């Protein structure tokens, strides 16, 4: 399913787009002020493959000219949807793309049967995740930088109370 937004098209990523998504992730993280040595240490962890394995979802927002403006990747681990990536082009940050990707991420997590969403986040991204309703629940070691720790974040779904005539539904609120 393709969703048309004000700024672009939100659609599933294709396998051949893995290198472009990896390059976007690298640019986005570098825009947070990290030095070249740090970024090189992170390169392998910022390399993404798009596959159609059950329990995995990779979605992107494509701009008017067909350029990728942002993407996310989820992988279901038991009943937890782990955010493996959520990146926006540096020039497109604070434009609403992250929020549109987040809305789709929550819907995708629910469609995979997740009961929670979790992320090991770059400290610079924590304010975004907190604004999306996540909470810091601990720390985990960095997969790229020995001795560095990253915040662990978690969001559980909220059961919406709807009138009895409409039934009830679960959602990540």
Report on the architecture of this protein.
It is a single chain. This protein is an alpha+beta fold. The chain has one domain (3-171): Gcn5-related N-acetyltransferase (GNAT) (Aminopeptidase, 3-Layer(aba) Sandwich), CATH 3.40.630. Helix content is 24%, strand content 33%. It contains 4 helices and 10 strands; from the N terminus they run ββααβββαβαββββ. The chain has helices at residues 18-30, 36-42, 97-111, 126-131, and strands at residues 3-4, 9-12, 56-62, 68-77, 80-88, 116-120, 135-141, 149-155, 158-160, 169-171. The strands form 2 sheets. It has an 8-stranded mixed β-sheet with strand order 1-2-3-4-5-6-8-7. Strands 9-10 form a two-stranded antiparallel sheet. It is globular, with a radius of gyration of 16 Å. It starts with a strand and ends with a strand. Residues 1-5 and 158-173 have low confidence and may be disordered.
- Mean pLDDT score: 85
- CATH homology group: Gcn5-related N-acetyltransferase (GNAT)
> How many alpha or pi helices?
4
CA radius of gyration: 16 Å
> Helix-strand pattern, N to C?
EEHHEEEHEHEEEE
Q: What composes the largest sheet?
A: 8 strands, mixed
The strand order across the widest sheet is 1-2-3-4-5-6-8-7
Short description:
The chain has 173 residues and is of the alpha+beta class.
List keywords for this structure.
10 strands, 33% strand, alpha+beta, two-stranded antiparallel sheet, Aminopeptidase, 173 residues, disordered N terminus, 4 helices
Question: Helices and strands in order, then pairings?
Answer:
Elements: E1 3-4, E2 9-12, H1 18-30, H2 36-42, E3 56-62, E4 68-77, E5 80-88, H3 97-111, E6 116-120, H4 126-131, E7 135-141, E8 149-155, E9 158-160, E10 169-171
Parallel strand pairs: 5-6
Antiparallel strand pairs: 1-2, 2-3, 3-4, 4-5, 6-8, 7-8, 9-10
């Amino acid at each position: 399913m393709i969703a048309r937004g004000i700024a672009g098209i939100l659609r599933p990523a294709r396998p051949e787009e893995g290198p472009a998504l990896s390059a976007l992730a690298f640019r986005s993280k570098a825009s947070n002020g990290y030095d070249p040595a740090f970024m090189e240490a992170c390169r392998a962890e910022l390399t993404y493959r798009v596959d159609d394995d059950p329990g995995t979802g990779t979605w992107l927002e494509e701009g008017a000219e067909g350029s990728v403006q942002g993407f996310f990747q989820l992988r279901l681990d038991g009943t937890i949807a782990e955010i493996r990536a959520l990146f926006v082009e540096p020039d497109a940050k604070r434009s609403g793309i992250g929020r549109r990707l987040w809305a789709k991420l929550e819907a995708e997590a629910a469609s995979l049967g997740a009961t929670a969403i979790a992320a090991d986040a770059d400290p610079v991204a924590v304010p975004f995740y907190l604004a999306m309703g996540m909470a810091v629940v601990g720390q985990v070691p960095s997969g790229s930088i020995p001795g560095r720790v990253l915040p662990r974040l978690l969001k559980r779904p909220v059961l919406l109370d709807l009138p009895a005539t409409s039934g009830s539904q679960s959602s990540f609120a």
